[in-house]
Every structure is written in structure tokens, then in C-alpha cells.
Design goal:
The complex is a heterodimer of chains A (about 280) and B (about 325). Chain A is about 75% helix and about 0% strand. With about 280 residues, chain A is mainly alpha-helical. In chain B, about 75% of the residues lie in helices and about 0% in strands. Chain B contains twelve helices and no strands. Classes of the chains: A mainly alpha (about 280), B mainly alpha (about 325).
Chain lengths: ~280, ~325
Amino acid sequence: MAHAAWRYVRRNLSLVVGIVLLGLLALFVGIGHLVVDTNKSRPLSAPAIRPPSADHPFGTDRQGRDLLATMVAGTPLTLRIGFIAGFLGVGIGSILGFVSAYYRGAVDSIIRGIVDIGLTVPGLLVLIIIAVSLRKGLTVDQMALIVASLAWLNPARTVRAQVLSMRERGYVEVARLSGMSGPEIIVKELMPNLLPYLAATLVNAVSAAILASIGLEVLGLGPIDSPTLGMTLYWVNFNAALINGWWWWWTAPIAIILVVFLGLFFLTVGLDEIANPRLRRVI
Amino acid sequence: MRLDYLARRCGVFVLIVWIAATLNFFLPRLSGQDPVRTKLLQQAQLGGYVHAGIDAMVKDYDRRFGLDRPLWEQYLSYLRDAVRLDFNYSIANYPRKVNEMIAEAVPWTIGLLGSTTLLSFALGTFLGALLAWPGAPRWMRYLMPPLWALHAIPFFLLGLVLIYLLAFEIQLFPMFGGYSGGAFPGFTVTFVWDVIRHAILPAMSIVLVATGGWALAMRGMMVTTQGEDYVTFAEAKGLRSLTIFTRYCLRNAILPQTTALALALGNILSGAVLVEVIFGYPGIGTVLFHAIRENDHFLIQGIVFTVIVALGLATLILDAIYPLLDPRINYRRT
């Protein structure tokens, strides 16, 4: 058993790397919340612009935030935006994808048309218009909803393509012949086979949502008084920390964002390999 | 059938233009009040030497988009302006028109984005093909993990790191802007060299990341193609392995890459906007960034509309070229 597990780990190394990276991040946030006072992520709670020291291991920024506390408080906020938007996106997207691929016809044409056009439009710009129109001190959750408004496009397309190939398979035919109804086939026959795909799509969507939210935040359209990772980068840019040589201000958020994206990326690759064993030879 | 396909594709393009204009018109009005008018009034209260101009703008805006006119009339009037690419004056930089500011920034963005996209696409496709070639040198295999890791990073994050390492620590490249402060724009050797020097870091942060993505996709396609029956047949015929590699595998694997290019343009652009912001590069992204800071709705709408339409046009062209590349495709409706 242990041997088989080890063999699988060696074959699907990316899954393990992804889980380890995200696990380390969770550990950082979890232990951080126990040890660090997250109130110090508020402005004026520490002396301004101090390089890392025993008191402030990650240093402090210009508004007097302790950067370690900011990271501990901000990382879960950024992940929260990603998860809310990702789940909403995959939820709505996969329902539309299912309906579109299973029933075909006019519904399919409409949904596919919207998705195709939506995907050629640069998402960040549409999000900018939405955020600019609504801007009245956004909260983290509103931010997640804004990002979610476009997050369903990709899942809808992926799920549609997958269901299209599945509905022609033998076991769906058998279910249809034995008198199962459309929704019943979707839930009982297609869903279980799609789960690994959905998992990979979800991780992708979360990653894309985090990227979009950080993009909006760097442009100054984020939740101004929340210490998310993207807002920290916004302040870095705003205060020209690079030119002033305050390296500790941006190294921590960049390192954490890197861990997030790399972890999610390796997780998708690992999940893809579970979902589509034929890929094994390819990657 | 080609004409039919082209007509349909052009229809989609018109649809994209219409949607972009409609989003621009309705989204700001969704929140109940009219943020554009609020901002205009604010600016008018600030006064200053452009006061009269802003006042005239408010009057003009009220005349065309005032609440006394039905929504559909306002909408039609907006669509008319959008089609003529007339986006009014910039609110924050009053005497300047939005088109003028966009026209000034566009060449920078096209230069940066066009060259980096082409370069990374070519480089990545070539590299990906090499990675799948059985005769490739052994050390190529060690390229894979760094390519994977790089490709998962947003452009602008790499940009930040590059600025610090290559412009701040080792002062190899300028940190900021599109050309040096005192330089005189013009087609002189010194100025062109100055522009190139400023473009290297932003270009690098896009190329390094994007190349990995193209290489990975190309390698995947190559491996799939190498498993096809016609390749086995070619091997059985005793063709030279180089011939099989270039004429049989490469040519087929490159096709899905071009489709992916059309799909990726939007994402690349979103990423490049942030790169421009980080580098203060004088393109569309930086103008947009300042417009957002100053709540300059006309400028933001103008940029978003222009970019969406430009990208729609680019995908239209790519889609029109595609059947020329792939004779198997005849685009009959299925």
C-alpha cells in the first residue's frame, strides 16, 4: 500500500508539489494568526519604513503597518476573493456548460456565442469598467463578486466540451435507453465522471480570479482599507518602494503570491493527470 | 463557403463592437446615479483656468445624456459617438481630447505588445518543438521545470523583480518610462537606442513568462502528433527522422498553436496593461492607470472601447488567415 502510494507520488509529482506549497502557505497563515497580532496590519501601528528586525521580521511599510501582520491578515483575504469567485464561476459555468452541451439546439448556440465572444474580450478591462462604475469603498466580498462576473466563461466552455464528448459514450446511451430523464442522467451518470475535471477547472478558476483581483487592486480599484496582497502591491507602487530601495516591502507579498500561483498551477497539473490519464505520456 | 464564413466572422466583430459600447453605456448607470455626471460636477467646482470649458462640458453632457431624455435616446446618441470613436474630452486633462491621448499612447503599446507576443510565440513554439524531438540534447530536459514555474507567474510580478535586480541593484537598464527625461523624440539613432533600452525590461518580463506557456503547449501537441498513425507510417517508409519531425509533426502541431494565439490575445493584453503600469511605460496601460486614479470616466471608457475593438479586429484577422494555413478546414456549418 505504502509502496503503491509512493509509486503514485513519483508519477504524479506535480500534485504533491502543489499540495505541499499550498500546505506551507496554510501553515504560515494558521500559525501566524496564533502568534502574530493582526491588528498590526492597520496603518500607524508600527514605526514607518523599518527594514526587517527582531520586532518586525518582515519590516514595516510607509503607513506604519507591520508587514508580517499584513501578510498574515492579507493572504486569507486574497485567497477568499479567489475562492468565492472561483466557486461561483465554476458553479454557474458548469451548469451553463451542462445545459448547453446536453440539450444542444438554440440554447447551445446562445450560450456558446456568449462564451466565445466573452473570452475574446480582455477580461481585466471589463472588470475595470464594472469596478469604476460601482466604486464606493469596495469590500473584499464585493470585489469577489465583481471578479466572479466573468469567472464563469472559461468553466462553461471547458465543461461544455467535456460533456459533449461524454454524452456520446456507451453508458450514457444505456442510461437513456433504460428511461432515465435528462437531469437524472446529468446528475447520476455525467457528474461523477466529470468530478476530476471540475476539480481541475475549479483550481484554474481560483487562480484566474486571484490574478484578476490582484490586477484590479494594483490599478487602485481594490478594497482600499483591506490589507490584501494586491493592495500591498498597490501601496508599493504608489510609494515607489522600488526606486527608494525599500526591498522588504515588496519581497514578502511577491513571495507569497508566487507560492499561491505555483501551488495552484502544480495542483491543476496534478488534477489533470488524474482526470485524464491519457495525458500521462504527454506531460 | 469561405465567403459565408468570413461574413459570419465579421458579424461577430460587429457584435463585439456593439457589446463594448453597450457595456460602456449601461454599466456606469447601473448603480442608480450617474457617476460620470458626478465627476464632471466635481471637476467644475474645482474651478481654475479650464473652468469655462468644464462648464460647457457639463451643459453638453446634460443636453445629450440628461435625465429629461429617455434612456434609449441617450443610448443611441452614445452608440453614434462610439462608432465615430468620439469619446469627448478627458475630464482630468481638460483641453485634451480622449482620442488624441489614446492615439499618442497606442504606438507604444502596439510596439511593446506586438514584438513581445511575436517573439515569445516564435521562441516558445520552437523551444516546445525541440523539447519533443528525440534527438534534442539532454540538457534541454532541464529547461522544463523552470519554464513551467515561470509560466505560472503574472507578467508584472516578474517585472517588479527584474526592475529590482537589473535596474536598481545592477544598473544595467533604466527603471522607468519609455525614454529618458531629457531626450528629444525623433528618428535619431540616440533616441531609438534610448527607446530600445527602456523597452528591454518590460519586454523581458512578458517574453520570459509567455515563452514558457507556448513551449509547454507546443510540446504537448508535438507528443500527441508523434503518436499519430501517419507518423508511424512515415517511419515505416524509412523517411529521415528530420523529415518526419519537420514535415510530418511540426506542420501539424503548429496549427492549434495559432488558434491558441487568437484566444490568448485578451489575456496577454490584460497582463501587459499591468506591466506598463509597473514600468511607467507610456502606453495605453499607464494612461488607463492615471485615468482610474483621477476617475476620468471618458478616458477610461474610450480606452476600454478602443482596446476591445482592436483585439476583436486582431482575432478577426487571425481567424480569416487560419483557413489558409489549414486546408482541412472549410468552415461548413456542422
